[in-house]
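Progress report, Aim 2. The chain analyzed during this reporting quarter is listed below.
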Amino acid sequence: MTSDFIINGKALYTPKGAALEYGRIGCNFYTGCPHECTYCYLKRGAPSKQLGGNKVRLKKCFRNVQDAADTLCRELDKNLEQCRRYGIFLSFTTDPMLEGTRVLTMTAICAAIPRIIPVWVLTKDATFIHDIHLMTALKNIYQDKRLDIHFGFTLTGRDDMEPKASTNVDRIMAMRKLHLMGFSTFASIEPVITWDAAEKMVRESIPYCDHYKLGLRSGVKKDYYNAIESAGTLMRIVQTVEAFGKTIYLKESTRRLIQSCYQPGAYEAFMSHTVDVDGKPIK
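Predicted structure tokens for the chain:
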């Protein structure tokens, strides 16, 4: 997957490859993450030296937090048309709702609202719902603006592989709270560790979740997933999501895995019950 435009700023940039399936425009202020997830891509290969590590640090291109905030505002104005069309995604290089990162995340939200820019925030940290200052700031956002702020939670159902993140149950409870406040919510069912765990996370979050993104685990052997089993579980998941009036996007890795299990025409019929990367129905 490729982008039709390029942003190469300090705060905003155009992601590449599979990252584009999460956000057309990335917004990163920090690097490093303390969750110690065993499957984390930031721990492997070349990116690990630049982006990995358990300590959260402000990116070196920013002098301080205020400089990061000022830089973001300039880059939002410079790329206003694209930002309004696609929104901005936080974050590919850390968890944006950690105690040490959430102030700049809230700054980004407050900068985006008057510019009519949607914001997507993906986290594994549910402790922010106990942050009085942050929750007060969220409550002060006008109701008609809240649907443009999308709070997402990674849900794998495997707390043992995410030892220092909030539990999956706590994440779903945080999602519930934001949903009741009128914010848009989404779940990243990625990586799928086991299909049973993935399906369980969908069932438990479905009352509070507006949209799902589902993707496979990277860096595993080709036979890690059974294509027929995967197709069967995915059909049940898609049916559940549709029955509740919610939407689901299947990442390219998932689509490649199951496509061979369908007869000609049947795959297209199945995919018509899902949406594309921008949330539009597939016809």
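The two ends are 19 Å apart (CA to CA). The first strand starts at residue 12 and ends at 13. These observations will guide the mutagenesis work planned for the next reporting period.
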